[in-house]
Every structure is written in structure tokens, then in C-alpha cells.
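Q: Start with the shorter request: fold the first protein.
A: Done. Sequence, then structure:
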Amino acid sequence: MKLVEYTDRRLYCEKVEPFLLQKEAENNLTLGLIGTFHRTVPAANVYTAIVEADEQIAMTLLMTPPHNLILSINEDVMSERMMIETVRSLVQNGMHFPGVVGERKWTEVFARVWADETSRRAAIAMEQKIYILKEVSAIQQSRGKFMLADLSHHPLLTEWMVDFMNYTNEPPISIENAAGRMKQFIKEKSVFLWMADDIPVSMAKKSRSTKNGVCVSLVYTPDELRGKGFASSCVAELSRHLLEDYAFCTLYTDLANPTSNSIYQKIGYSPIQDSVMISFS
């Protein structure tokens, strides 16, 4: 087993992309992030590494602070012994992680070993499922229409983004930071709305893309407007729109929210992997 850390992001991308593309939909988070490395220079504190065994990739590691470490696992190669050795190497190298996210089985092993080796507490922050969609099912749409968000919606969508981040156990975000990010999203034409009586009632975002797919994220409906089918209509129409340019869509769900999981399956999304987000304290 060998832990190889990369400061040259170009070399890292060349090394890991062929491996990650073998399970493109499941690895959409890592692939989407390294895709940005081709377009922009990543921050100096971004962490990129691989674990190799017998000249094969056993695991990729990527962290963009302050976010969690992301693991992508080669289940044919990874072993508990190898995971223990990996964690011990990371500890020796002085690494610190706020948490970890990835395929459930091996991410839980990593977290358990990390807690043992660092005397930190590991706690599940969110149990997730990754879904894939290749064709949108026919569903009963709620009243209203689908549209691209514009800057006139910016103040409201900034508030929605803050609420979304708090609801989904993401790192807290200030109203100023949310405002800046939302303005950029709107300029990129990546945020879409469901409108009822010309009022925004739900949003969803075109997020990171991979070679053949694209992720749907930031799905949000205010509490007082939930249960009316607005999110279903918004996600269905956004997915249909994205499938004009991509072979498939992916999204993550919180397993603690059975309503959203049911909604996505009715639209046509199928589960492909259990994922877990674990925090260290």
C-alpha cells in the first residue's frame, strides 16, 4: 500500500479520471470537482491524494476546505488492513479533516479507524443515497411554470440558500457569502425556479458536470409551500432540460427525508449507491 499525495493538480486529474469514470455517476462529486481544476487554479489548501496497491488505484482522496474529505473506493482492491495503513499515514503526515463523505461501507471503516487513531469522535451527519436519471417519467405537474432565475430573484434566493445550507448539515454560510455565490450562480444561468402566480415557490440548480452527466442540487421549497408538488415539477423540468445535453442526471438525497426520496423516484430517478457523511469532533 502506498499513499501518494499530489500538489500538481494536473497530474492528479490525469491519474484518477480514468479510474473514476469507470463509475461515473457514483463518482460524480469527485469528478465534478476535479473538472473545475481544468478551468480554474484550485486553492493551495486543496488536498489531493491516491492510495495505490499492486499498481492499481485503491482509493482517491480529495478535500476542498472547509468541506469534508471525499473518498472514492475501488472495492475490488480496498481492504480493512489497507484502510488502517492509509489512516495511519495521513495522521503521520499531520492531516486534519472536519469529516468524510463517500460510499457507505468503506467511509464508515475510514471514520472508525480515524476516530481510533486520532482520539476524535465520529458521528453520522447524514445518511445519503445517490440517484441516476436517464429519462423523466410522466408526472402530474403542479400549477405554475418553469423558468430560469434572474437577478430580480437574487434577494429571495439568497435567503433560500442560507436556509438550505442549514437544513442539509452543510458548513454554515453567512448571508454575505450566500449572496455572492447566488449572484454567481444566476450569472452562470444555473438556477431554475418553479413559479406559481408569478411568485417563486421552489428552486433547483444545475450543478457540477462530468463527461456524460450532470448533477441536480440545491433543491429547495420553503416550509410553508411544501406538499404542493412544486419541487417535483421543478426537478422534473430541470432534469428534462438537462437531458437535452447530457446522457444522465444525478442527485444526492437525505435518507432521513422519505418524502424527497419518494418524489425523485416518481420522476424516474433510480438509486445506485448508499453514501454517508460523517463529522469528526
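Q: Next, the second protein, separately.
A: Sequence, then structure:
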Amino acid sequence: VIDGDRARLFSRTGDDISAAFPDLVEALGGRAVLDGELLVGHDFDPMNFNHLQQRLNRKTPAKSHIRDYPAFVRVYDMLFDGEEDIRDLPLVDRRRRLEAWMATHAGTRLDLSEILAFNDWDELAALRRMGAETHGHEGLMIKQLQSLYVAGRPKGPWFKWKRDPRLIDTVMMYAQRGHGRRSSFYSDYTFGIWRGNEIVPVGKAYSGFTDGELRDLDKWVRGNTVNRFGPVREVEKDLVVELAFDSAHESPRHKSGIALRFPRVSRIRWDKPASEADTIETVRKLIG
């Protein structure tokens, strides 16, 4: 939300996160309400999500973070042009207004999103693969040209076509009870990969399985517990689980040095020995 020499930045949940990104909000001018994706990087070249996390959830950013991870917004849409509410205009008209506004006010912290032209679905699929493989994009956002701007996550006029998830075989290390209707089941799991002769944590997952699979996993955890740390059970390093995830990034907070974005259970590999789970060398090739 930009109002002259004052700007505020809001997350998708409505939280005001302006204080964490003074380098961004202090550089904005004009009058408009814009929708876009918050990123960090130099010269509009986005760094991976792990670098953005260095700046999220901080009341006051460190000077080194502002220097190393400068924030910018890749702008997708316009809700207000000056004082005028344009959410009920078709997307094609909002885009025309946005391009005109950006030509005057973009500066060094607002980057206009690219529009991709295509002739058929095969061509669009090729663009999606190229974006994922070359730039690490999560996928494409497809919008009807006549669509209005609707709050929330409207289905139909807008569609997010995500790239295929990455997959790795991991070994279950720890389990913890879930919440709500899962409070009586061990449904929150920590998984690891091989680093030499040891298994090191690479991510946690608590979704992706059916109710039947949850019961099977809960039974396995109870029967294969080797240690307890409060609510957490350490289990035998025998069960292989295939994890699906969106991307992998370097992370000093994890013993493996790698963090997975949006990990979830893809398959339970009852048939596979733990010795055949993936290694840290394999997963490092997926970083980016």
C-alpha cells in the first residue's frame, strides 16, 4: 500500500511486515495498492527462499541482511490506481493501468512480472519446465484476461500450474504426536539422509498420507521406538519414506546443511532397505 511518501507492506495473511523491510518501503513512492511477491536479491535477480527467510519474522533487520539480501517486489496486479478502486476491472485493463503506473514509479524496488505468450498447452508446458530448470521457478500462474480481482484464492479464473515436485528417499528418525484429531497418533515425522555412515535430518513432514497409512505409521513408530525425549520418540533407522518437496536450499540451521521447502510424504517404501536411501551428495544436486 503506497500513499505518497508512506508505504506499508502486508503479508498474504494481512500482517503488517513493513518494519522488517525498511529498505523496501522507504524506497517507494506514488499512490497505489499493488499485489506481488516479496523477494530478495540484487538487480531483480531473486535469491532462493532460504535467503528470504533470513529476513522474515524479524522486528528489526540486521544491517548485514539489508546489505546482503535487499528486498524487492515482483508486481503482478493492481488493486487501486491512486484513489480509484479498479478491482472490478478485467485483468487486461488492470494490467494496462499497472504498466503505465510502473513506468513512472517502479524505481529500484518494484519489478513488473513477465507475461508469457504461448500458442498451445505443449508450448506452455515447455515454458514451465524451462522456468523450473533454469531459474528454479515453482511454476506458472494462469489467469483469464477478463477476470476480476477477487480476494482469497479464487478457483476457476486463476490457476497455479506448479512444476512437478522433487522426490528423494529418506529415513524416518523421529516422531511426535499430532494435534487436533491426530493428537492420539504419531503423525509428525523427522526424516534424514545419509552423510557418510550417519543419517542426518533433512526435513519434517506431517502430510501426504492417508488415514490408513497414518495408522500403519503410528503402529510402526510405537513398535520401533528406541529412545524418548519428552513428547518425541526416536525410532529405529529402518523405515524409508519418499518425500516430495518444492525445492531444496542450503541452511545452517539444519545438521545436514539443507532445508526442504514444503516437504510432504509421497510414498512409504516398506519394501526398500534404509541403506538405499538418498545421500547428501544426491540432495545437494537439487539445491537451487
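Q: Describe the second briefly.
A: DSSP finds seven helices and 18 strands in the chain. The radius of gyration is 22 Å.
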